[in-house]
Amino acid sequence: MQTLEDWLGARLLHRTTRRVALTDIGENFFVQCSRILEDMDQARHAAKPEAQVRGTLRLAAPIVFGSMRLGPLMVNFLQRHPELSLSIELSDRSVDLIEEGYDLAIRSGPTNGAGLVAFPLMSLQYLLCAAPGYLGRHGVPNVPADLARHHCITSAPDSSRIWRFSGPDGEVDVQIYGRLLINNALLRRDAARAGAGILRCAEYLVADDIASGRLVRLLPEYVPTPLHMHAVCPAFRAASPKVRSLISHLTAELTER
Predict the structure, then answer these.
(1) pTM for the whole thing?
(2) Does the fold of domain 126-225 match that of domain 2-122+229-255?
(3) Of all helices (H) and strands (E), which one includes residue 186?
């Protein structure tokens, strides 16, 4: 161990007369070495004619999308691959896949990055809606320009103050106003249900609300710009059987829905 520490130029173990424990550097080194050994094992099995999906796969996904869409898909995936373990982190931060040791991430934002490859999964279709109570008090907008006179529920960044639509006459940008800024899509939906204002969100989040009449779809001829979901992985993991299998599974399942 001393030779290894000398070679690395870092202490890997805390040593006392009673116990020996990994340092933070040592723990990180152990994790990275474990991943390398697992990747070597995956490469060995991938070289076989019928490579099995096995080992542990780490996946990162956005909180709301993961909470509402991934549960049944992941259960089904594990049932198909009994020798695989799956570790999922739901977070809205952009994880560093290579540095933090993730195999795959689902992203709706930028997918470019050194050493990364992206695979398209689906488009998230967006719409406008509001509660009947709010519309009864403030009226129904007939064109996007009417939104400037309404309370719109937005996310926190300043860029969310501009809403873009594709309509009969092409693209149109609207400067919107809103006193309620929320960085979570589920909470924005709850606020819209309570009559706080007009909501722009992914269709799957409010499909049941619109069907039941809790929310009313607005300006159906003007479509908000969709988001495109991708599966992103480090390039050196793209050929891994477990990563390829999960990408294929997500593509098939999400494209059908």
Answers:
(1) 0.73
(2) yes
(3) helix 185-193
